[in-house]
Amino acid sequence: MEDSKLLRLLKKDPNAGMEQLMDQYAGLVYAVVKGRLADSYHVSTDIEDCVADVFSQFYAHLADYDPNRSSIKTYLCVMARNQAVTVAKWRSREQGTVSLDEAPFSPQLADDVLIDSALAEEELRREVFDAVKSLGEPDASILLRKYYFGESSKEIADALGLTVSNVDTRTHRALHQLKSMFGEKSI
Amino acid sequence: MKKTLNELFDQAAPEELEPFADALGAPDLPPETLSAVKEKVYAKTGLKTNKKSRKKTWYRVGALAACFALIIGAVILVPLLRRAPVWEDAHYTAADIASLFDAIKYDGVSTNAYTKIYVPDTQYLYLDPLPEDDYFSIYQYKNPKKALNKEEFKAFLDGILPKLASAVDAEIPSYEIEENDTYEKRLEIYEYMGPYTYTIMADQNERYSWFHVSTRYDGRKIVLSGEPMQVDQRLSDDEIIDSLQPIKSILFELFGVSFPDVKILRSFGSHSKHGAEWIEIYFYDENAHPLNRTMERPVTDYIAIYFDNMKNYDDDIVSDSVLTAASINYYQYRVDIASAYSLIANAKKLPLEDAETLLYNGYVFGGHSCPLCMAAQDKVDFEGYDFVGLEYVFGYDSEEDQPTTGIPFYAFYKNIGNAYNGNAVYAKTYVPAIEVKGLDAYFQSQTKNHRTGSVNTIE
After folding, report:
1. B41:A56 CB<8 A
2. Which of B432, B437, B389 is nearest to B412 (CA)?
3. ipTM exceeding 0.85?
Protein backbone atom coordinates (compact mmCIF):
# COMPACT_ATOMS: atom_id res chain seq x y z
CA MET A 1 0.00 0.00 0.00
CA GLU A 2 1.30 3.46 -0.85
CA ASP A 3 2.38 5.71 1.99
CA SER A 4 -0.42 8.22 1.51
CA LYS A 5 -3.06 5.51 1.66
CA LEU A 6 -1.39 3.88 4.60
CA LEU A 7 -1.28 7.16 6.51
CA ARG A 8 -4.91 7.79 5.79
CA LEU A 9 -5.79 4.34 7.02
CA LEU A 10 -3.73 4.83 10.16
CA LYS A 11 -5.56 8.01 10.98
CA LYS A 12 -9.02 6.78 10.06
CA ASP A 13 -8.80 3.28 11.42
CA PRO A 14 -5.72 2.73 13.60
CA ASN A 15 -6.35 -0.98 14.03
CA ALA A 16 -6.50 -1.67 10.32
CA GLY A 17 -3.69 0.79 9.65
CA MET A 18 -1.30 -0.82 12.10
CA GLU A 19 -2.20 -4.26 10.81
CA GLN A 20 -1.32 -3.16 7.29
CA LEU A 21 1.82 -1.33 8.42
CA MET A 22 3.15 -4.39 10.20
CA ASP A 23 2.23 -6.75 7.38
CA GLN A 24 4.10 -4.47 5.03
CA TYR A 25 7.18 -3.56 7.02
CA ALA A 26 7.64 -5.99 9.91
CA GLY A 27 10.07 -8.07 7.85
CA LEU A 28 12.16 -5.03 7.06
CA VAL A 29 12.17 -3.70 10.61
CA TYR A 30 12.99 -7.16 11.88
CA ALA A 31 15.95 -7.36 9.50
CA VAL A 32 17.31 -4.00 10.61
CA VAL A 33 16.96 -4.89 14.28
CA LYS A 34 18.39 -8.34 13.81
CA GLY A 35 21.40 -6.89 12.04
CA ARG A 36 22.18 -4.97 15.20
CA LEU A 37 21.13 -7.46 17.85
CA ALA A 38 21.83 -10.85 16.34
CA ASP A 39 24.78 -11.76 18.45
CA SER A 40 25.33 -14.30 21.15
CA TYR A 41 23.53 -12.54 23.96
CA HIS A 42 20.43 -11.31 22.17
CA VAL A 43 17.66 -13.85 22.14
CA SER A 44 14.83 -13.80 19.64
CA THR A 45 12.40 -12.29 22.13
CA ASP A 46 14.75 -9.31 22.46
CA ILE A 47 14.46 -8.79 18.73
CA GLU A 48 10.68 -9.19 18.78
CA ASP A 49 10.39 -6.76 21.68
CA CYS A 50 12.55 -4.26 19.86
CA VAL A 51 10.53 -4.59 16.65
CA ALA A 52 7.31 -4.15 18.62
CA ASP A 53 8.77 -1.03 20.26
CA VAL A 54 9.52 0.44 16.85
CA PHE A 55 5.94 0.02 15.64
CA SER A 56 4.47 1.16 18.94
CA GLN A 57 6.57 4.30 18.87
CA PHE A 58 5.71 4.96 15.27
CA TYR A 59 2.04 4.77 16.18
CA ALA A 60 2.41 6.87 19.33
CA HIS A 61 4.31 9.57 17.44
CA LEU A 62 2.54 9.37 14.15
CA ALA A 63 2.19 13.14 14.14
CA ASP A 64 5.98 13.46 14.06
CA TYR A 65 6.27 11.65 10.77
CA ASP A 66 6.74 14.08 7.90
CA PRO A 67 5.99 12.49 4.52
CA ASN A 68 7.83 15.30 2.78
CA ARG A 69 11.11 14.26 4.38
CA SER A 70 11.10 10.53 3.88
CA SER A 71 9.10 7.47 3.04
CA ILE A 72 7.59 5.41 5.84
CA LYS A 73 10.01 2.68 4.88
CA THR A 74 13.18 4.65 5.55
CA TYR A 75 11.64 6.32 8.59
CA LEU A 76 10.95 2.92 10.12
CA CYS A 77 14.44 1.75 9.22
CA VAL A 78 16.00 4.64 11.11
CA MET A 79 13.70 4.11 14.07
CA ALA A 80 14.58 0.43 14.06
CA ARG A 81 18.29 1.11 13.88
CA ASN A 82 18.15 3.60 16.74
CA GLN A 83 16.00 1.36 18.90
CA ALA A 84 18.26 -1.60 18.31
CA VAL A 85 21.33 0.41 19.21
CA THR A 86 19.65 1.49 22.43
CA VAL A 87 18.78 -2.09 23.31
CA ALA A 88 22.32 -3.19 22.50
CA LYS A 89 23.70 -0.54 24.82
CA TRP A 90 21.50 -1.58 27.70
CA ARG A 91 22.25 -5.23 27.16
CA SER A 92 25.95 -4.53 27.11
CA ARG A 93 25.68 -2.67 30.36
CA GLU A 94 23.58 -5.40 31.97
CA GLN A 95 26.00 -8.11 31.00
CA GLY A 96 29.31 -6.52 31.70
CA THR A 97 31.14 -3.59 33.07
CA VAL A 98 30.58 -1.33 30.11
CA SER A 99 28.89 1.94 30.96
CA LEU A 100 25.99 3.15 28.91
CA ASP A 101 28.15 5.76 27.25
CA GLU A 102 30.90 3.34 26.50
CA ALA A 103 28.70 0.57 25.16
CA PRO A 104 29.30 -0.17 21.52
CA PHE A 105 27.25 2.06 19.30
CA SER A 106 28.56 0.81 15.99
CA PRO A 107 30.27 -2.53 16.21
CA GLN A 108 33.40 -2.41 14.12
CA LEU A 109 33.20 -4.66 11.11
CA ALA A 110 36.49 -6.18 10.12
CA ASP A 111 36.50 -4.96 6.56
CA ASP A 112 34.75 -1.64 7.04
CA VAL A 113 36.22 1.44 5.48
CA LEU A 114 37.45 4.29 7.67
CA ILE A 115 36.60 7.60 6.13
CA ASP A 116 38.66 10.57 7.14
CA SER A 117 37.15 13.85 6.11
CA ALA A 118 37.04 17.48 7.02
CA LEU A 119 33.45 17.71 5.91
CA ALA A 120 30.67 18.30 8.39
CA GLU A 121 29.00 15.09 9.40
CA GLU A 122 25.77 15.61 7.50
CA GLU A 123 27.60 16.65 4.34
CA LEU A 124 29.96 13.73 4.67
CA ARG A 125 27.07 11.29 4.85
CA ARG A 126 25.53 12.81 1.76
CA GLU A 127 28.82 12.58 -0.17
CA VAL A 128 29.47 9.02 0.90
CA PHE A 129 25.96 7.82 0.25
CA ASP A 130 26.03 9.44 -3.18
CA ALA A 131 29.28 7.62 -3.81
CA VAL A 132 27.80 4.32 -2.66
CA LYS A 133 24.85 4.86 -4.92
CA SER A 134 27.16 5.70 -7.82
CA LEU A 135 28.80 2.28 -7.49
CA GLY A 136 25.75 0.92 -9.20
CA GLU A 137 24.04 -2.40 -8.65
CA PRO A 138 24.56 -4.87 -7.20
CA ASP A 139 27.49 -3.22 -5.39
CA ALA A 140 25.38 -0.52 -3.71
CA SER A 141 22.93 -3.12 -2.43
CA ILE A 142 25.76 -5.32 -1.23
CA LEU A 143 27.24 -2.50 0.85
CA LEU A 144 23.81 -1.57 2.18
CA ARG A 145 23.07 -5.12 3.19
CA LYS A 146 26.46 -5.61 4.75
CA TYR A 147 26.80 -2.33 6.58
CA TYR A 148 23.21 -1.41 7.20
CA PHE A 149 21.50 -4.73 7.78
CA GLY A 150 24.62 -6.50 9.01
CA GLU A 151 23.99 -9.44 6.71
CA SER A 152 26.70 -12.00 6.09
CA SER A 153 28.18 -12.62 2.66
CA LYS A 154 26.23 -15.87 2.54
CA GLU A 155 22.92 -14.11 3.26
CA ILE A 156 23.67 -11.44 0.69
CA ALA A 157 24.66 -14.01 -1.89
CA ASP A 158 21.43 -15.91 -1.36
CA ALA A 159 19.34 -12.76 -1.56
CA LEU A 160 20.98 -11.36 -4.67
CA GLY A 161 21.62 -14.60 -6.52
CA LEU A 162 25.39 -14.32 -6.38
CA THR A 163 28.11 -16.60 -5.10
CA VAL A 164 29.71 -15.89 -1.75
CA SER A 165 33.07 -15.27 -3.33
CA ASN A 166 31.47 -12.89 -5.80
CA VAL A 167 29.93 -10.94 -2.93
CA ASP A 168 33.24 -10.79 -1.12
CA THR A 169 35.06 -9.68 -4.24
CA ARG A 170 32.53 -7.01 -5.02
CA THR A 171 32.58 -5.83 -1.43
CA HIS A 172 36.34 -5.59 -1.44
CA ARG A 173 36.36 -3.74 -4.73
CA ALA A 174 33.59 -1.33 -3.65
CA LEU A 175 35.34 -0.54 -0.40
CA HIS A 176 38.55 0.06 -2.28
CA GLN A 177 36.76 2.56 -4.48
CA LEU A 178 35.33 4.33 -1.47
CA LYS A 179 38.74 4.40 0.16
CA SER A 180 40.20 5.95 -2.94
CA MET A 181 37.52 8.61 -2.81
CA PHE A 182 37.39 9.26 0.93
CA GLY A 183 39.58 7.00 2.94
CA GLU A 184 43.06 8.06 2.17
CA LYS A 185 42.74 11.78 2.01
CA SER A 186 40.66 14.50 3.42
CA ILE A 187 38.15 16.04 1.11
CA MET B 1 36.39 13.45 11.27
CA LYS B 2 36.85 9.72 11.02
CA LYS B 3 33.82 7.56 10.45
CA THR B 4 33.29 4.05 9.23
CA LEU B 5 30.64 3.33 6.66
CA ASN B 6 28.80 1.43 9.34
CA GLU B 7 28.77 4.48 11.61
CA LEU B 8 27.60 6.71 8.81
CA PHE B 9 24.66 4.42 8.19
CA ASP B 10 23.92 4.40 11.90
CA GLN B 11 23.61 8.14 12.00
CA ALA B 12 21.71 8.58 8.76
CA ALA B 13 18.44 10.48 8.85
CA PRO B 14 15.45 8.94 7.06
CA GLU B 15 15.71 11.30 4.12
CA GLU B 16 19.39 10.42 3.67
CA LEU B 17 18.44 6.78 3.26
CA GLU B 18 15.83 7.60 0.66
CA PRO B 19 18.21 6.96 -2.29
CA PHE B 20 18.49 3.40 -1.02
CA ALA B 21 14.78 2.92 -0.46
CA ASP B 22 14.40 0.57 -3.38
CA ALA B 23 17.20 -1.59 -2.06
CA LEU B 24 15.74 -1.71 1.43
CA GLY B 25 13.99 -5.01 1.25
CA ALA B 26 13.62 -8.00 3.50
CA PRO B 27 11.82 -11.31 3.40
CA ASP B 28 8.43 -11.65 5.06
CA LEU B 29 8.49 -12.77 8.64
CA PRO B 30 7.35 -16.27 9.57
CA PRO B 31 3.67 -16.05 10.60
CA GLU B 32 4.38 -16.99 14.19
CA THR B 33 6.99 -14.25 14.52
CA LEU B 34 4.72 -11.69 12.91
CA SER B 35 1.90 -12.69 15.25
CA ALA B 36 4.17 -12.38 18.25
CA VAL B 37 5.24 -8.90 17.18
CA LYS B 38 1.65 -7.82 16.55
CA GLU B 39 0.49 -9.06 19.93
CA LYS B 40 3.22 -7.03 21.60
CA VAL B 41 2.31 -3.93 19.63
CA TYR B 42 -1.36 -4.29 20.49
CA ALA B 43 -0.48 -4.72 24.15
CA LYS B 44 1.74 -1.63 24.10
CA THR B 45 -0.60 0.62 22.15
CA GLY B 46 -3.93 -0.59 23.49
CA LEU B 47 -5.10 -1.19 19.93
CA LYS B 48 -7.52 -4.03 19.21
CA THR B 49 -8.85 -3.70 22.71
CA ASN B 50 -11.19 -0.78 22.36
CA LYS B 51 -14.68 -1.69 21.35
CA LYS B 52 -14.90 1.57 19.51
CA SER B 53 -11.45 2.56 18.43
CA ARG B 54 -12.22 4.84 15.56
CA LYS B 55 -11.80 8.46 16.43
CA LYS B 56 -12.54 10.93 13.75
CA THR B 57 -9.88 13.56 13.42
CA TRP B 58 -12.39 16.22 14.14
CA TYR B 59 -13.06 14.57 17.47
CA ARG B 60 -9.51 15.29 18.52
CA VAL B 61 -10.17 18.80 19.66
CA GLY B 62 -13.64 17.89 20.81
CA ALA B 63 -12.52 15.08 23.05
CA LEU B 64 -12.42 17.15 26.17
CA ALA B 65 -15.74 18.66 25.33
CA ALA B 66 -17.16 15.20 24.85
CA CYS B 67 -15.91 14.35 28.29
CA PHE B 68 -17.66 17.41 29.66
CA ALA B 69 -20.85 16.45 27.97
CA LEU B 70 -20.81 12.74 28.48
CA ILE B 71 -18.68 11.74 31.42
CA ILE B 72 -20.85 12.87 34.11
CA GLY B 73 -20.97 11.65 37.57
CA ALA B 74 -22.10 12.79 40.83
CA VAL B 75 -21.10 13.28 44.21
CA ILE B 76 -23.75 12.14 46.39
CA LEU B 77 -22.84 9.80 49.11
CA VAL B 78 -25.85 8.09 50.49
CA PRO B 79 -25.46 4.60 51.74
CA LEU B 80 -29.21 4.28 51.76
CA LEU B 81 -31.18 6.23 49.22
CA ARG B 82 -33.99 8.25 50.50
CA ARG B 83 -37.29 7.78 48.83
CA ALA B 84 -37.40 9.65 45.54
CA PRO B 85 -40.18 11.92 44.36
CA VAL B 86 -42.75 10.14 42.22
CA TRP B 87 -43.94 11.62 38.95
CA GLU B 88 -45.90 8.78 37.47
CA ASP B 89 -47.19 10.85 34.57
CA ALA B 90 -43.68 11.55 33.36
CA HIS B 91 -42.86 10.54 29.81
CA TYR B 92 -39.39 9.20 30.50
CA THR B 93 -38.12 6.79 33.10
CA ALA B 94 -34.90 7.19 35.04
CA ALA B 95 -33.52 4.25 33.08
CA ASP B 96 -34.36 6.04 29.82
CA ILE B 97 -32.39 9.12 30.67
CA ALA B 98 -29.55 7.18 32.26
CA SER B 99 -29.10 5.35 28.97
CA LEU B 100 -28.17 8.62 27.32
CA PHE B 101 -24.78 8.29 28.94
CA ASP B 102 -23.97 4.87 27.53
CA ALA B 103 -21.57 6.44 25.08
CA ILE B 104 -18.85 6.45 27.66
CA LYS B 105 -18.97 2.68 27.73
CA TYR B 106 -18.25 2.52 24.03
CA ASP B 107 -15.35 4.87 24.38
CA GLY B 108 -13.94 3.04 27.35
CA VAL B 109 -13.80 6.11 29.52
CA SER B 110 -13.78 5.35 33.20
CA THR B 111 -16.57 6.77 35.24
CA ASN B 112 -16.18 9.52 37.74
CA ALA B 113 -18.19 10.62 40.72
CA TYR B 114 -18.23 14.06 39.17
CA THR B 115 -16.58 15.88 36.36
CA LYS B 116 -13.90 18.39 37.24
CA ILE B 117 -13.97 21.61 35.27
CA TYR B 118 -10.91 23.88 35.33
CA VAL B 119 -11.31 27.55 34.54
CA PRO B 120 -9.29 30.69 35.28
CA ASP B 121 -12.49 32.69 35.34
CA THR B 122 -16.15 31.76 35.73
CA GLN B 123 -17.02 33.33 32.36
CA TYR B 124 -15.51 30.21 30.79
CA LEU B 125 -18.19 28.02 32.36
CA TYR B 126 -20.36 29.44 29.56
CA LEU B 127 -23.51 29.52 31.65
CA ASP B 128 -26.65 31.09 30.24
CA PRO B 129 -29.53 32.16 32.47
CA LEU B 130 -31.98 29.34 33.09
CA PRO B 131 -34.99 29.55 30.78
CA GLU B 132 -38.24 30.53 32.41
CA ASP B 133 -40.45 28.28 30.25
CA ASP B 134 -42.69 25.74 31.98
CA TYR B 135 -41.86 23.11 29.42
CA PHE B 136 -38.63 21.97 27.88
CA SER B 137 -38.34 20.78 24.30
CA ILE B 138 -37.24 17.21 23.75
CA TYR B 139 -35.39 16.59 20.51
CA GLN B 140 -34.72 13.40 18.70
CA TYR B 141 -32.17 12.92 15.96
CA LYS B 142 -33.60 10.85 13.14
CA ASN B 143 -30.38 10.20 11.32
CA PRO B 144 -31.43 10.87 7.76
CA LYS B 145 -29.20 9.48 5.07
CA LYS B 146 -28.36 10.34 1.51
CA ALA B 147 -26.55 7.92 -0.77
CA LEU B 148 -22.90 8.63 -1.41
CA ASN B 149 -22.29 10.48 -4.65
CA LYS B 150 -18.81 10.69 -6.10
CA GLU B 151 -19.69 13.45 -8.55
CA GLU B 152 -21.16 15.53 -5.77
CA PHE B 153 -18.05 14.97 -3.65
CA LYS B 154 -15.81 15.87 -6.55
CA ALA B 155 -17.75 19.09 -7.08
CA PHE B 156 -17.40 19.83 -3.34
CA LEU B 157 -13.64 19.34 -3.54
CA ASP B 158 -13.21 21.18 -6.81
CA GLY B 159 -15.07 24.10 -5.34
CA ILE B 160 -12.53 24.39 -2.53
CA LEU B 161 -9.14 23.07 -3.63
CA PRO B 162 -8.34 25.63 -6.37
CA LYS B 163 -9.16 28.51 -4.05
CA LEU B 164 -7.17 26.92 -1.23
CA ALA B 165 -4.21 26.32 -3.53
CA SER B 166 -4.29 29.95 -4.56
CA ALA B 167 -4.57 31.09 -0.95
CA VAL B 168 -1.53 29.09 0.15
CA ASP B 169 0.41 29.72 -3.06
CA ALA B 170 0.67 26.06 -3.95
CA GLU B 171 -0.28 23.85 -6.83
CA ILE B 172 -3.69 22.27 -6.79
CA PRO B 173 -3.09 18.78 -5.47
CA SER B 174 -4.19 15.92 -7.62
CA TYR B 175 -6.40 13.67 -5.58
CA GLU B 176 -7.91 10.26 -5.76
CA ILE B 177 -11.31 9.69 -4.22
CA GLU B 178 -11.42 6.45 -2.33
CA GLU B 179 -14.32 4.50 -0.99
CA ASN B 180 -14.14 3.30 2.57
CA ASP B 181 -16.77 1.33 4.40
CA THR B 182 -14.94 0.82 7.67
CA TYR B 183 -17.55 1.60 10.33
CA GLU B 184 -19.51 3.74 7.91
CA LYS B 185 -19.73 4.25 4.17
CA ARG B 186 -17.76 7.20 3.00
CA LEU B 187 -15.74 8.71 0.20
CA GLU B 188 -12.50 10.34 1.20
CA ILE B 189 -9.30 11.98 0.14
CA TYR B 190 -6.06 12.51 2.04
CA GLU B 191 -3.44 14.73 0.47
CA TYR B 192 -0.67 17.13 1.33
CA MET B 193 -0.32 20.60 -0.05
CA GLY B 194 2.13 23.45 -0.19
CA PRO B 195 5.59 24.15 1.12
CA TYR B 196 4.54 23.71 4.73
CA THR B 197 2.96 20.33 4.16
CA TYR B 198 -0.59 21.23 4.98
CA THR B 199 -2.65 18.14 5.53
CA ILE B 200 -5.80 18.06 3.45
CA MET B 201 -8.52 15.62 4.41
CA ALA B 202 -12.07 15.44 3.21
CA ASP B 203 -14.90 13.00 3.63
CA GLN B 204 -18.34 12.53 2.27
CA ASN B 205 -20.57 10.28 4.32
CA GLU B 206 -24.30 9.76 4.19
CA ARG B 207 -24.93 12.89 6.23
CA TYR B 208 -22.34 15.51 5.48
CA SER B 209 -19.28 16.55 3.54
CA TRP B 210 -16.27 17.61 5.57
CA PHE B 211 -13.11 19.45 4.57
CA HIS B 212 -10.09 19.76 6.83
CA VAL B 213 -6.81 21.66 6.59
CA SER B 214 -4.15 21.48 9.26
CA THR B 215 -0.45 21.71 9.79
CA ARG B 216 1.92 20.31 12.35
CA TYR B 217 2.15 22.01 15.69
CA ASP B 218 5.83 22.87 15.52
CA GLY B 219 5.36 26.53 14.80
CA ARG B 220 4.46 26.37 11.12
CA LYS B 221 1.36 28.45 10.63
CA ILE B 222 -1.44 28.10 8.18
CA VAL B 223 -1.23 31.23 6.06
CA LEU B 224 -4.17 32.00 3.79
CA SER B 225 -3.73 34.79 1.26
CA GLY B 226 -0.99 36.25 3.42
CA GLU B 227 -3.09 36.15 6.58
CA PRO B 228 -1.60 33.95 9.32
CA MET B 229 -4.04 31.69 11.10
CA GLN B 230 -3.40 32.64 14.70
CA VAL B 231 -5.17 33.89 17.77
CA ASP B 232 -3.94 35.82 20.78
CA GLN B 233 -5.53 34.19 23.79
CA ARG B 234 -4.87 37.24 25.95
CA LEU B 235 -7.60 39.05 24.05
CA SER B 236 -11.26 39.03 25.02
CA ASP B 237 -13.67 37.05 22.86
CA ASP B 238 -14.87 40.23 21.15
CA GLU B 239 -11.28 41.28 20.46
CA ILE B 240 -10.49 37.85 19.05
CA ILE B 241 -13.51 38.03 16.79
CA ASP B 242 -12.34 41.43 15.54
CA SER B 243 -8.83 40.12 14.97
CA LEU B 244 -10.18 37.25 12.89
CA GLN B 245 -12.19 39.39 10.48
CA PRO B 246 -9.69 39.04 7.60
CA ILE B 247 -9.46 35.29 8.12
CA LYS B 248 -13.23 35.00 8.35
CA SER B 249 -13.65 36.69 4.98
CA ILE B 250 -11.04 34.41 3.43
CA LEU B 251 -12.70 31.30 4.86
CA PHE B 252 -16.14 32.38 3.67
CA GLU B 253 -14.70 32.91 0.19
CA LEU B 254 -12.85 29.62 0.37
CA PHE B 255 -15.92 27.57 1.25
CA GLY B 256 -18.43 29.72 -0.59
CA VAL B 257 -20.56 30.41 2.48
CA SER B 258 -21.45 33.20 4.85
CA PHE B 259 -22.44 32.71 8.48
CA PRO B 260 -23.77 35.55 10.65
CA ASP B 261 -22.72 34.23 14.05
CA VAL B 262 -19.49 33.35 15.77
CA LYS B 263 -18.86 31.53 19.02
CA ILE B 264 -15.63 31.00 20.94
CA LEU B 265 -15.03 28.18 23.39
CA ARG B 266 -11.92 27.96 25.53
CA SER B 267 -10.97 24.77 27.33
CA PHE B 268 -8.63 24.81 30.28
CA GLY B 269 -6.80 22.14 32.21
CA SER B 270 -5.26 21.61 35.60
CA HIS B 271 -1.54 21.74 34.81
CA SER B 272 -0.66 23.86 31.81
CA LYS B 273 0.43 27.33 32.76
CA HIS B 274 -0.01 28.52 29.20
CA GLY B 275 -3.68 29.45 29.47
CA ALA B 276 -6.25 27.65 27.36
CA GLU B 277 -5.40 24.16 26.14
CA TRP B 278 -7.78 24.55 23.22
CA ILE B 279 -9.62 27.40 21.67
CA GLU B 280 -12.46 26.60 19.30
CA ILE B 281 -13.99 29.23 17.07
CA TYR B 282 -17.23 28.48 15.24
CA PHE B 283 -18.73 30.44 12.38
CA TYR B 284 -22.35 29.38 12.03
CA ASP B 285 -25.97 30.50 11.85
CA GLU B 286 -27.53 30.43 15.28
CA ASN B 287 -31.03 30.70 13.85
CA ALA B 288 -30.60 27.65 11.65
CA HIS B 289 -31.84 25.47 14.52
CA PRO B 290 -33.04 26.13 18.10
CA LEU B 291 -30.43 23.72 19.41
CA ASN B 292 -27.69 26.01 18.13
CA ARG B 293 -28.60 28.32 21.01
CA THR B 294 -28.54 25.52 23.58
CA MET B 295 -25.79 23.18 22.49
CA GLU B 296 -22.18 24.13 22.97
CA ARG B 297 -21.45 23.38 19.32
CA PRO B 298 -23.64 24.05 16.30
CA VAL B 299 -25.75 21.23 14.92
CA THR B 300 -25.98 22.80 11.46
CA ASP B 301 -23.36 23.77 8.85
CA TYR B 302 -20.33 25.53 10.24
CA ILE B 303 -16.69 26.42 9.85
CA ALA B 304 -14.56 25.72 12.90
CA ILE B 305 -11.01 26.78 13.62
CA TYR B 306 -9.36 24.76 16.35
CA PHE B 307 -6.27 26.10 18.06
CA ASP B 308 -4.32 23.52 20.02
CA ASN B 309 -2.11 24.64 22.90
CA MET B 310 -1.03 21.33 24.37
CA LYS B 311 2.47 19.93 24.37
CA ASN B 312 2.06 16.41 23.15
CA TYR B 313 5.50 16.12 21.60
CA ASP B 314 8.84 17.71 22.26
CA ASP B 315 8.64 20.08 19.31
CA ASP B 316 5.03 21.15 19.82
CA ILE B 317 4.81 24.88 20.34
CA VAL B 318 2.70 26.11 23.23
CA SER B 319 2.20 29.72 24.21
CA ASP B 320 0.46 31.84 26.77
CA SER B 321 -0.14 34.47 24.12
CA VAL B 322 -0.40 33.81 20.39
CA LEU B 323 -1.54 30.33 19.33
CA THR B 324 -0.66 29.13 15.86
CA ALA B 325 -1.37 25.40 15.85
CA ALA B 326 -4.57 25.55 13.90
CA SER B 327 -6.84 23.31 11.95
CA ILE B 328 -9.74 24.41 9.80
CA ASN B 329 -12.83 22.27 9.48
CA TYR B 330 -15.86 22.88 7.32
CA TYR B 331 -19.03 20.82 7.68
CA GLN B 332 -21.64 20.98 5.00
CA TYR B 333 -24.64 18.78 5.66
CA ARG B 334 -26.02 16.86 2.72
CA VAL B 335 -29.30 16.15 4.46
CA ASP B 336 -31.84 18.49 5.96
CA ILE B 337 -30.17 18.57 9.33
CA ALA B 338 -32.65 21.04 10.78
CA SER B 339 -35.50 18.59 10.40
CA ALA B 340 -33.24 15.73 11.42
CA TYR B 341 -33.25 17.15 14.92
CA SER B 342 -36.97 17.12 15.40
CA LEU B 343 -39.01 18.29 18.34
CA ILE B 344 -40.81 15.21 19.63
CA ALA B 345 -42.23 16.40 22.93
CA ASN B 346 -42.56 19.24 25.36
CA ALA B 347 -41.82 17.85 28.78
CA LYS B 348 -42.88 19.55 31.95
CA LYS B 349 -40.01 21.38 33.53
CA LEU B 350 -38.80 20.20 36.87
CA PRO B 351 -38.60 23.27 39.10
CA LEU B 352 -35.10 24.06 40.27
CA GLU B 353 -36.01 23.44 43.89
CA ASP B 354 -37.15 19.90 43.02
CA ALA B 355 -33.92 19.34 41.12
CA GLU B 356 -32.00 20.45 44.17
CA THR B 357 -33.88 17.87 46.23
CA LEU B 358 -32.77 15.18 43.80
CA LEU B 359 -29.23 16.51 43.89
CA TYR B 360 -28.97 16.47 47.66
CA ASN B 361 -30.44 12.98 47.88
CA GLY B 362 -28.27 11.28 45.33
CA TYR B 363 -30.56 11.07 42.30
CA VAL B 364 -27.96 12.28 39.88
CA PHE B 365 -26.94 10.99 36.49
CA GLY B 366 -23.75 10.67 34.62
CA GLY B 367 -21.13 8.13 33.68
CA HIS B 368 -23.26 5.65 35.49
CA SER B 369 -25.75 6.15 38.18
CA CYS B 370 -24.62 3.82 40.89
CA PRO B 371 -24.57 5.56 44.26
CA LEU B 372 -22.10 3.00 45.59
CA CYS B 373 -19.57 3.81 42.91
CA MET B 374 -20.11 7.47 43.46
CA ALA B 375 -19.50 6.89 47.14
CA ALA B 376 -16.08 5.51 46.34
CA GLN B 377 -15.01 8.92 45.05
CA ASP B 378 -13.87 11.91 47.04
CA LYS B 379 -16.87 13.49 48.60
CA VAL B 380 -18.13 16.80 47.37
CA ASP B 381 -21.00 18.37 49.17
CA PHE B 382 -23.17 20.20 46.68
CA GLU B 383 -25.10 22.02 49.38
CA GLY B 384 -24.61 25.68 48.59
CA TYR B 385 -23.51 24.95 45.03
CA ASP B 386 -22.04 27.89 43.13
CA PHE B 387 -23.72 27.77 39.73
CA VAL B 388 -26.40 25.91 37.84
CA GLY B 389 -26.88 25.82 34.08
CA LEU B 390 -29.01 23.96 31.58
CA GLU B 391 -27.50 21.49 29.15
CA TYR B 392 -28.96 19.14 26.62
CA VAL B 393 -27.42 15.72 26.76
CA PHE B 394 -27.87 13.59 23.69
CA GLY B 395 -27.74 9.85 23.66
CA TYR B 396 -25.35 8.27 21.26
CA ASP B 397 -26.00 5.63 18.68
CA SER B 398 -22.80 3.68 18.40
CA GLU B 399 -23.80 2.08 15.13
CA GLU B 400 -24.74 5.29 13.39
CA ASP B 401 -22.15 7.39 15.16
CA GLN B 402 -24.78 10.03 15.84
CA PRO B 403 -26.63 11.47 18.79
CA THR B 404 -30.20 10.34 19.36
CA THR B 405 -32.60 11.80 21.90
CA GLY B 406 -31.66 15.00 23.68
CA ILE B 407 -32.83 15.58 27.24
CA PRO B 408 -32.32 18.79 29.22
CA PHE B 409 -30.40 18.50 32.47
CA TYR B 410 -29.53 20.92 35.19
CA ALA B 411 -25.76 21.06 35.50
CA PHE B 412 -24.68 21.96 39.03
CA TYR B 413 -21.24 23.39 39.74
CA LYS B 414 -19.46 23.53 43.08
CA ASN B 415 -16.06 25.11 43.62
CA ILE B 416 -13.72 22.57 45.20
CA GLY B 417 -10.46 24.50 45.25
CA ASN B 418 -7.65 25.33 42.89
CA ALA B 419 -5.58 23.24 40.53
CA TYR B 420 -1.79 23.05 40.25
CA ASN B 421 -1.79 25.87 37.71
CA GLY B 422 -4.07 28.08 39.78
CA ASN B 423 -7.24 27.47 37.80
CA ALA B 424 -10.40 27.18 39.86
CA VAL B 425 -11.73 23.63 40.03
CA TYR B 426 -15.46 23.06 39.83
CA ALA B 427 -17.19 19.75 40.43
CA LYS B 428 -20.04 19.35 37.98
CA THR B 429 -22.93 16.95 38.19
CA TYR B 430 -26.25 16.48 36.41
CA VAL B 431 -29.88 16.23 37.45
CA PRO B 432 -32.70 15.88 34.91
CA ALA B 433 -34.55 19.13 34.23
CA ILE B 434 -37.77 17.27 33.44
CA GLU B 435 -39.92 14.99 35.52
CA VAL B 436 -38.94 11.34 35.30
CA LYS B 437 -40.49 8.28 36.83
CA GLY B 438 -39.01 5.15 38.34
CA LEU B 439 -36.16 6.85 40.16
CA ASP B 440 -36.10 4.53 43.16
CA ALA B 441 -36.40 1.38 41.07
CA TYR B 442 -33.59 2.46 38.79
CA PHE B 443 -31.16 3.44 41.51
CA GLN B 444 -31.83 0.30 43.50
CA SER B 445 -31.16 -1.76 40.39
CA GLN B 446 -27.87 0.05 40.03
CA THR B 447 -26.75 -0.78 43.53
CA LYS B 448 -27.36 -4.46 42.79
CA ASN B 449 -25.45 -4.21 39.52
CA HIS B 450 -22.41 -2.98 41.34
CA ARG B 451 -22.30 -5.27 44.32
CA THR B 452 -19.20 -6.93 42.96
CA GLY B 453 -17.35 -3.71 42.34
CA SER B 454 -14.67 -2.09 44.40
CA VAL B 455 -17.35 -1.04 46.82
CA ASN B 456 -19.22 -4.24 47.30
CA THR B 457 -21.51 -3.96 50.23
CA ILE B 458 -24.52 -1.97 51.06
CA GLU B 459 -26.18 -1.89 54.43
Report:
1. yes
2. B389
3. no
